[in-house]
Amino acid sequence: MWKQFIGKLTWKSMKSSSGGGGGVGSPPAKPPPVSPRENGAAGKPDVSPPTPTGGAGAEVRSREDAFMEKVNICCEVFDFSDRGKDSPEKERKRQVLMSLVDCIGAAEEPLTEVMISACVRMFAINLFRVFPPKVRSGTTASETEEDEPFFDPSWYHLQVVYEFLLRFVTSPFVDPKVARKYVDSSFVSKLLDLFDSDDPRERDCLKTILHRIYGKFMGNRPFIRKAVSNIFYRFVFETDHHNGIAELLEVFGSVISGFAKPLKEEHKLFLWKALIPLHKPKTVGVYLPQLTYCITQFIEKEPKLAGTVIRGLLKFWPVTNSQKEMMFLGELEEVLELTDMAEFQKCMVPLFRRIASCLNSSHFQEAVAERALFLWNNEHLFDMISQNRRVILPIIYPALERNTRWHWNQSVLNVTMNVRKMFLDMDEKLLLACQSNFQEEEEKRAATEERRKLIWEQLERSASGAYQPQPHQPVITDTSFPAPPSSALLVAPTVT
User: Fold this and answer.
1) Measured distance CA(270)–CA(127) in Å, rounded
2) Are the C-beta atoms of residues 322 and 281 closer than 8 Å to each other?
3) CA Rg, the chain, in Å?
4) Do the beta carbons of residue 375 and residue 383 sit within 8 Å?
5) How far apart are the first and last CA of the chain?
6) CA triple 183-246-328, angle to 5 deg
């Protein structure tokens, strides 16, 4: 419509100039004003086209300038170790941060690239920092779990910055294609470093933000998975200390549940090389529920991975830490509930050798033996054991028989008798055969011990009879060089 209107004005201007009698060099006459009544269609726009465009641009610029001014105020970093220092400026910055949170929450227009860049820069200035070195003490894992958490004195401001970052990531008015230029690998890597914060409130905020970033910025997903794997590697094989393993595993629990079937080879390697080695550190109890959830998610996605997980548990099974052994038995039961018969048969021999070792545990505080015997209360596991009893019972019967004869704990003794009765009801003939084999093995072992004892006694008698102490003999000296008298002084020879 604007082109038609301008075209008519130009045509009328040319017509009036040609009909006015002026020559080629004479100035053109001004066109008469067009009344809205004379031409309604052309007379509707009473304002020239550049005016509204210029007004909108000015409005956008003013909005952008005001936003940038607030963001620049928030880029100033204060020292929060002294609460009384710069109190008015700190409060002003917090109020501006809260106004920015409200602004992005009530936004009705997309943020420009300049505004997005400024926000990411402000996040980096306020959040990315180096934590003080941790003081290593000689405390055990159980003692460190009871330590009081550390609360960052700057959390009063950091909380608002994290709230702003969360609103920024989840806002529909932040274009992911534009924001990805600034929320890049470097930004995500530094954000992951913050998970080592001693403040649990900060780690909780980071957990939510990382999950949102993983969901919105799809191009960053491979890098996030690789970076988190590196954190796990460094924790297991180098530092043995990290505060945010539980939070990272919680994020990846939901990430793994979204993996498509069949699983990619990259995801299987993440299970084998990153998740299963997390059973090695002493502080596994801090994050074991999250770790177990991640592993069970993998098995639900692909049941064939159950054998891989069981072999990994056996690889890192604790030998001297009974408390950790109790945790492993609990996780093993959850894994076995998701294991099918084919995978169970592949690993049942080494698995029940380890369970037989647990049955004979005599720890006086942690009832490892009792917890291992409770595995027979699981219906799914009991069904698989009953179908493979000809392989399993000969492995664990010696441990059951030793418990009934020599275990000191009455509760363990009672549960052992119940399990033995289950096998008796299941297959009495097999149980009697295992009992007979056990008696033969015990007799052979007793005979071997007696023979070894006799051999040692014979060796002791032979050694005592052959040994005869020799009388003291004087030292024979060479008389060709007579020794100096004791009163003579020893003088070093001189060279002339």
Assistant:
1) 29
2) no
3) 41
4) no
5) 126
6) 145
Q: What is the dihedral of CA 202, 205, 207, 209, to 10 degrees?
A: -130
pLDDT tens, 414-427?
A: 999 999 999 999 99
pTM of the model: 0.76
How many whole angstroms separate alpha carbon 399 and alpha carbon 394? 10
pLDDT of 223-270, one tens digit each?
999 999 999 999 999 988 999 999 999 999 999 999 998 999 999 999
Select from 432, 372, 377, 378 the least CA-distant residue to 407. 372
* Cβ-proximal residues to 208 (8 Å cutoff; 6+ apart), any chain: 166
Q: Which residues contact 462 (CB under 8 A, 6 or more apart)?
A: none
Distances, alpha carbon 441 to alpha carbons 141, 432, 435, 444, 452, in Å: 41, 14, 10, 5, 16
The number of helices, as runs of H, and strands, as runs of E, in the chain is: 22, 0
Alpha carbon distances (Å) from 116 to 176, 183, 471: 10, 10, 99
- Per this entry, what is the length of the chain? 496
Assign residue 86 a region (left: φ > 0; alpha: ψ between -120 and 50; beta: otherwise). Answer: left
Do residues 248 and 230 touch, judged by C-beta distance below 8 A? no
Half-sphere exposure of residue 283: CA atoms within 13 angstroms, side-chain side: 19
| DSSP for 8-60, written as a single string | HHHHHHHHHHHHTT--SSSPPPPPPPPPTTT-HHHHS--S-THHHHHHHHHHH
pLDDT digits over 329-382, tens only?
A: 999 999 999 999 999 999 999 999 999 999 988 776 568 999 999 999 999 999
Residue 395 pLDDT exceeds 50? yes
Nearest to 165 by CA among 206, 130, 106, 198: 206
Distance from C-alpha of 355 to C-alpha of 329, rounded to nearest angstrom: 9
**Are the beta carbons of 128 and 194 closer than 8 angstroms?**
yes
Cα–Cα distance between 111 and 104 in angstroms, integer?
Answer: 9
C-alpha dist (Å) from residue 278 to 57, 140, 229, 286, 304:
56, 18, 11, 11, 21
**Are residues 371 and 337 in contact, defined by beta-carbon separation less than 8 angstroms?**
no
Cα atoms in the Cβ-side hemisphere of radius 13 Å centred on 430: 20
Nearest to 228 by CA among 266, 184, 270: 270
Instruction: Kindly give the interhelix angle for 305-315 and 322-337, rounded to the nearest 10 degrees.
Output: 170
Give Cα separations from 354 to 175, 298, 335, 348, 349 (angstroms): 55, 24, 16, 10, 9
